[in-house]
Write a sequence for this structure.
């Protein structure tokens, strides 16, 4: 519920004509409030007002006001059809028809649905109830009497038939999920050695006893039902004639009790089938689970005993935790092993061999090709380096702008060059000097970082690269700068060469 008292949106939409809409109130976010209201309505035989319901649920839901209870009752009536209401006879004004002065009760379908929720779905502290073996004996005794005595009166026959089907309902409801409950009893890891042995004997003894009793009783009941097979129609007719609600059943207002139709007896025979019936499936499942249960209990008993490596390690850990004798116990237990390196540094004079120095075993080729290649443990998350990436991108953009400005300065012909422009020109000259010369005119062309350079050979002159604080002489050649992949023509090279050439210095004569 929101802070303003309104309900959150229902996440489950049920069509208006769907017969399962009565179950939908158990699957929506407001289930706790709906269940609390239905608990009150199903436990009371009289119609209740929203005020009375609000007083009852107030200890569990302090925020359930009368208006809110009235709204929830309208939802249970309009959306899910599990309650019904009518106006109170004391209404005086039209404004009182808001639902708070109505009287509400659970519908028959609502009572059945909520009883199913209370008995089956709601979590309870009690576990699976024991198998009612007396009910199986009651069934066999009643069937024995029906099969052995053909001169029974209608009332006595109806009583025996009622005993058969009532006991069968009790037995059928107990067998539902009983095998799973017996298996789950062994899944406990907090047992000591004595408790594990006791649980083992009790579970195996009980399971064996139940399986033996059920197999014997089911086989006997199936034989008796096969003997009574030709009399199923007569027994059903006797039950119908002995019913005190025969008129209401005939008009369709009530449903006849079990045993009043031949189909009920056929279904009972199939249930007691020793090969394919429900009781036989229960016995087979318990029998199949007994070895696994026995092995599981033996494993639990082995884990709690003192002979396993796990138990010894736990005992050593508990003894090492002693503040007085713990270090001595640890040193005495691990003195002959290199495991001491796990918690302390071994002395220099300690003698011990490492597994690295042991014999080497060749790794099979199949294991090398299909083995596990990933690192152990969880994969490390990627480091959050968004800020560092942005800083690097800004530096790259600044360097690119600076390089573009230097190239523009070199191509403009302004001399002397600034320091960035001189560095760019020098790198282009070095790239051109390392390039092969053309066979036609001996020109060498190279490029570096967006700036091209062609070295024109001039035997009588020399070029010079002038920077702000330095200059570089190019004896016998002249540097001509241009865009990469756009070298100047030979005529342009001649013009640039005459413009940028200077006399070759004379050689000193000794």
């Amino acid at each position: 519920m929101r802070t303003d008292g309104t309900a959150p949106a229902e996440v489950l939409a049920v069509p208006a004509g769907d017969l399962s809409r009565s179950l939908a109130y158990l699957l929506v976010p407001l289930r706790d409030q709906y269940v609390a209201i239905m608990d009150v309505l199903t436990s009371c035989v009289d119609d209740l007002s929203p005020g009375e319901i609000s007083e009852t649920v107030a200890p569990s839901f302090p925020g359930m006001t009368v208006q809110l209870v009235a709204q929830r009752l309208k939802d249970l009536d309009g959306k899910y059809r599990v309650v019904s209401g009518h106006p109170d006879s004391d209404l005086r004004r039209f404004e009182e028809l808001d639902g708070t002065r109505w009287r509400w009760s659970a519908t028959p379908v609502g009572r059945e649905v909520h009883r199913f929720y209370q008995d089956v779905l709601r979590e309870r502290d009690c576990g699976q109830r024991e198998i009612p073996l007396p009910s199986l004996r009651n069934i066999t005794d009643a069937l024995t009497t029906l099969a052995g005595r053909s001169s029974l009166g209608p009332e006595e026959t109806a009583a025996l038939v009622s005993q058969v089907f009532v006991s069968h309902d009790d037995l059928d409801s107990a067998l539902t999920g009983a095998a799973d409950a017996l298996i789950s009893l062994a899944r406990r890891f907090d047992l000591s050695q004595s408790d594990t042995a006791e649980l083992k004997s009790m579970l195996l003894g009980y399971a064996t006893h139940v399986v033996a009793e059920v197999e014997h009783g089911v086989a006997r009941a199936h034989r008796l039902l096969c003997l009574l097979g030709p009399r199923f129609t007569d027994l059903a007719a006797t039950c119908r004639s002995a019913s005190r609600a025969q008129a209401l059943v005939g008009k369709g207002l009530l449903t006849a009790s079990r045993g009043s139709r031949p189909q009920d007896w056929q279904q009972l025979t199939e249930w007691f089938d020793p090969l394919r019936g429900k009781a036989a499936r229960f016995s087979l499942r318990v029998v199949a689970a007994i070895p696994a249960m026995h092995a599981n209990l033996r494993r639990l008993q082995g884990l709690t005993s003192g002979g396993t490596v796990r138990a010894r390690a736990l005992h050593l850990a508990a003894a090492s935790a002693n503040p007085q004798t713990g270090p001595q116990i640890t040193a005495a237990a691990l003195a002959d092993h290199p495991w001491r390196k796990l918690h302390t540094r071994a002395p220099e004079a300690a003698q011990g061999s490492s597994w690295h120095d042991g014999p080497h075993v060749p790794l099979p080729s199949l294991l090398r090709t299909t083995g596990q290649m990933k690192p152990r443990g969880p994969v490390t998350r990627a480091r959050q380096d968004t800020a560092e990436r942005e800083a690097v991108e800004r530096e790259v953009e600044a360097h690119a702008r600076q390089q573009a400005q230097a190239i523009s300065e070199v191509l403009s012909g302004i001399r002397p060059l600034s320091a960035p422009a001189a560095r760019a020109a020098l790198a282009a000259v070095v790239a051109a000097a390392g390039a092969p010369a053309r066979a036609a005119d001996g020109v060498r062309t190279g490029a570096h970082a967006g700036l091209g350079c062609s070295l024109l050979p001039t035997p009588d002159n020399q070029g010079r690269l002038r920077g702000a604080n330095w200059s570089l002489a190019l004896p016998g050649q002249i540097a001509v700068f241009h865009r990469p992949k756009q070298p100047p023509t030979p005529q342009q090279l001649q013009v640039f060469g005459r413009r940028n050439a200077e006399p070759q210095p004379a050689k000193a004569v000794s």
The longest strand covers residues 451-466. Strands lie at 83-87, 102-106, 444-448, 451-466, 471-482, 502-503.
